[in-house]
Amino acid sequence: MTISRVYWDREWRGFAKRPFNCIIPIMGFSFLPPEIHALIAKNLEPYDLGSLVRTSAALKRAYTFFLYEYAAYPSDGSSPLIWASQRSHIPLASYLLALGHFINCPEAQTQRTPLAIAACNGGLQMVRFLVSRGAALNCTDNAGYTPLIWAVIGGHMAICRVLLSAGADPNLYRLSNQFMYRAKPALHWAALGRGSGSSPGLVSLLLKWGADVNVVNADGRTALIEALTAPGQHAAEICQLLVAGGAEVNFRLLAATEPFDRILEVGQTVLFAAAGNPQLYKIMIDGGADAELEDAEGETVLEKAVIRGFSRHVHTILSHGAKFNIETARGISLLKIAMTRNHQMVDLLVCTVEERANLNTNILSGPLGKDKWRSV
């Protein structure tokens, strides 16, 4: 007989405050009657039992079953299947389902199902296990996200492939009053230029499985506008995939529900969103974007860039052959407006005028016509 000194398990209950002693007959322990094992297990606290099973392989085999029973009836009221999904503990999940636990029981605070939690944490084997047991693929949490969306946000391509092949809807998302301006389908998250979910591979995978390239999110944006307004490392490749997949490059309105200050900051057409990046702008032009398309305010992409004083946008737009008129259809003199902005913009506009001889002092004289163009 060997005396074993068992300490409180740090991972189970935090840092130990004091050890406790117990006399354990290691030799021949596995031959004890099951009634003795049950009596020992029922008279120990869960954290003590967890420490005990770590002292030897024989004790682990004898008492793991009792630990599962403790886990099946937690004291905090949460589903133990949630705990198992967070840690990809497939044996415990299998045991709980055998006891009759509801496989889609959501987490109390976020309403995420075990499948959504496993997909978010990158637990590929747990996802496969839950899918094989019939877990719901298209249920949403309180943010309106499905398990597929959480897998895309985390950049877990293998999990996305498992969910899509099992029948997950790539276009499903639900509007939430609490997270209204964050609600968007999976393709939008894959197209965003930030986070681990931004990936040309994910965009290609979602398009292959039927993601709608022109669906709008709660902000009224398409996936292409998401990629243009927040470009990341793979923005050019993502935009090319979206355009090749049929994305609308002449999308007129940014959003009907967009806050007014964000409309002024970002712009209202796909071309204006791309004008700050010459490479992305060229992709839009090659994809058939119309530089003469007027937005809801009656302005072309060049006029909007001049009025707002974006010299870089103006340079990109003019270098790709945009038509420049000294005076717009509304009677606004772009040169006069440029003079109130900066000299670099004036130089850009003057250098593109074919009939420079017609530029006389009349351009520099007279009122600026502020009654004809809105204040910005």
UniProtKB/TrEMBL annotation:
GO cellular component: cytoplasm; nucleus
Domain of life: Eukaryota
Entry coiled-coil feature ranges: none
Record keywords: ANK repeat, Repeat
PROSITE patterns, A to Z: ANK_REP_REGION, ANK_REPEAT
Pfam families (alphabetical): Ank, Ank_2
InterPro entries reported in the protein's UniProt record: Ankyrin_rpt, Ankyrin_rpt-contain_sf, Multifunctional_regulatory
UniProt key word Repeat: yes
Sequence ranges of the ANK repeats: 110-142, 143-175, 182-218
PANTHER family: ANKYRIN REPEAT AND SOCS BOX PROTEIN 2, MYOTROPHIN
Name of this protein: Ankyrin
Organism of this sequence: Morchella conica CCBAS932
Organismal lineage: Eukaryota, Fungi, Dikarya, Ascomycota, Pezizomycotina
